[in-house]
Design goal:
By secondary structure, the chain is an alpha+beta fold. The chain folds into three domains: about 140 residues, Aspartate Aminotransferase, domain 2 (3-Layer(aba) Sandwich); about 110 residues, Alpha-Beta Complex (Aspartate Aminotransferase, domain 1); about 45 residues, no CATH class. Strand 10 and strand 11 form a beta hairpin.
């Protein structure tokens, strides 16, 4: 890391834990190097706030950014916050007026009004989530999640044809892992797990295409991600492992990667066009539009789990 610093380096931004492979970065070591050079350190704690200890002073952190709807259990979702030290200057103006009095002709110079967004109800939701978490001890929850993800890792690793990524040592991890099943693309595995077995997962590049490129999974459109939380049990882990073993027997050689549409991996797509307009046709940028309804069927015609609708513009 020392080689990365340059004479004009003023800020280092670190993802505290990866949302793809679950690796926790050595923030304390990074912070010490930044402090020695007089460089500010910002960490994105979206994956770790509420489960991995963060000591701003000992780790030499200047700003901690986090989201409330993950390990802090804030509801409703869409709570995002940043905690800055007293010595850190924050001059950002809001993108739009929020829940405080604001005039476009004046500048708000005091915190938190200068950077405040959102609604008071969301702040109360975050407060309730944090209180729930503190009543149960975040360290205990993290230990529970790591016991589950270790069992999941071991079960998947025992399946011939299942490939795991960066999961050999889980000592510096959170409860997230990714995998692929030979003979399937990630999106197909995710669809089968969801529709046939009602197992929630996330597939694709997980907003981290460069990481998937480094892992070599970009060419097959990413991987399947499973994560655990405080409400999961060992029975849920066993439920997830079994279908992956059964899927292995249904696969074949990987198909050549193909361009993926929004609905790729969902099986047969049936498009239903509503030809009859209502009295006042909808418009997009002054053009008339029509509605389409999309029903996606997987390999079992009895399943109609996916339903989508869209507004498609056409020139009249």
């Amino acid at each position: 890391m020392a080689r990365r610093f340059k004479a004009n380096t003023r800020l280092v931004v670190v993802n505290h834990a990866s949302n793809v492979i679950g690796t926790v970065q050595p923030v304390a070591e990074i912070g010490a190097r930044c402090r020695k050079r007089g460089v500010a350190l910002v960490i994105d704690a979206s994956q770790t706030a509420g489960k991995v200890p963060i000591d701003v002073e000992k780790m030499h952190i200047d700003v901690v950014a986090f989201t409330g709807h993950k390990s802090l259990f804030a509801r409703p979702a869409s709570v995002g916050s940043a905690c800055a030290t007293a010595s850190t200057s924050v001059t950002r103006e809001p993108a739009a007026p929020a829940c405080v009095r604001w005039s476009p002709t004046t500048s708000r110079s005091s915190l938190p009004s200068r950077v405040r967004h959102g609604e008071p109800a969301r702040g109360r939701g975050l407060h309730a989530g944090v209180n729930w978490l503190l009543d149960r001890d975040p360290r205990t929850i993290h230990q529970h999640e790591m016991a589950l993800i270790t069992a999941l890792r071991d079960g998947l690793r025992a399946i011939d044809g299942v490939t795991l990524y960066c999961q050999d040592d889980l000592s510096g991890h959170i409860g997230v892992l990714i995998f692929n099943v030979a003979g399937f693309e990630a999106a197909d595995v995710g669809t089968l797990l969801d529709v046939d077995y009602e197992i929630a997962c996330r597939t694709g590049l997980h907003c981290a295409p460069l990481l998937h490129k480094q892992l070599g999974t970009e060419a097959i459109h990413g991987a399947v991600r499973l994560s655990v939380g405080p409400f999961n049990t060992m029975a849920h882990i066993e439920t997830a492992i079994g279908p992956c073993a059964r899927l292995r027997g249904r696969g074949g050689p990987h198909r050549q990667p193909r361009a993926r549409s929004q609905f790729a991996g969902m099986g047969t797509v049936i498009v239903l066009v509503r030809a009859a307009f209502i009295a006042e046709p909808p418009t997009i940028d002054g053009h008339r539009a029509l509605y389409i309804g999309i029903i996606c069927l997987d390999r079992n015609p009895a399943h109609k789990k996916f339903g989508h609708s869209a507004l498609i513009q056409y020139n009249s």
